[in-house]
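Dear Dr. H.,

I hope your travels went smoothly. While you were away I took the liberty of generating a structure for the chain from your last submission, since the lab meeting agenda had it listed for discussion. I wanted you to have the full record in hand beforehand rather than looking at slides cold. The sequence, exactly as received, is reproduced here:
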Amino acid sequence: MKAMTLQSFGGPASFALRDVPTPVPHAGQVLVRVHATSINPLDYQIRRGDYSDLVPLPAITGHDVSGVVEAVGPGVTAFSPGDAVWYTPQIFDGPGSYAEYHVAAESIVGKKPASLSHLEAASLTLVGGTAWEALVVRAALRVGESILVHGGAGGVGHVAIQLAKAMGARVFTTVRAANFEFARRMGADVAIDYENEDYVDAILRETGGRGVDVVFDTIGGDTLSRSPDALAQLGRVVSIVDIAQPQNLVQAWGKNASYHFVFTRQNRGKLDELSALVDRGQLRPHVGAVYSLADIALAHARLETPNNGVQGKIAIAVVPLAD
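The corresponding predicted structure, in token form, is as follows:
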């Protein structure tokens, strides 16, 4: 099979298209013909060497799969060849999805929503699971509460807006002015132009000084230390960004705030919950750009470029013109 392999840690040119053996499913595993995958910040963080101790080279990376079951191993009961499936490969535990075939444990695989194309489904598995873990499991967002989603035009952000609205929350988001219409189309109640207005000032103005119940951080920087200024009492901050520099959280004490740090976990349950929202028309990923498997380096370079013009996700068609 063809696979895009990471030959060394570094820039996008570190990838090379290679012929590698097609994997064989063992007990409890399914072999999937990958139709589509997508690009996430985690992917370029791994490529540049942020997790070099966990990724032996050469490596096949990638963390989204939408495809069709090709074969099943002994003991598999939930899937049969021909089933359309989607999932996030187990991170740092074996090859990823930048390949024509992938083997996964039956327990992390879900039935692909019929209303999503493979490109759309592959654009939702990791970001959808991350948003679910952050908002539902960790923040425990409730009906009638308010949330600030940082980076609402991005891969995780645009899904988090839709999920928060489905949960009955009032949604604020920070985006560039050029993305206001997109953010509102995703369901944001208030879009804040972070380039021209301080988001804390905007939140306090829009909430009458109360602040929001939840801040969802997808951007890093000084978000952890500044979030208490925008929080209501007993507010929660959820971050998916690994921030190396120490930050002063003394302001959080006065708000009785709680902080949660999320590195998404794989399981079928989250996929089934996301599928239900998709089927009800409350959630749909936006594919902002599509590249081929051979052009993954270009896709990485674009995602890493600030203000790259991509709304939502960058998808990869592993099967040419994957639907």
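Two observations you may find useful: The two ends are 20 Å apart (CA to CA). The CA atoms of residues 147 and 214 lie 5 Å apart.

With kind regards,
E. W.
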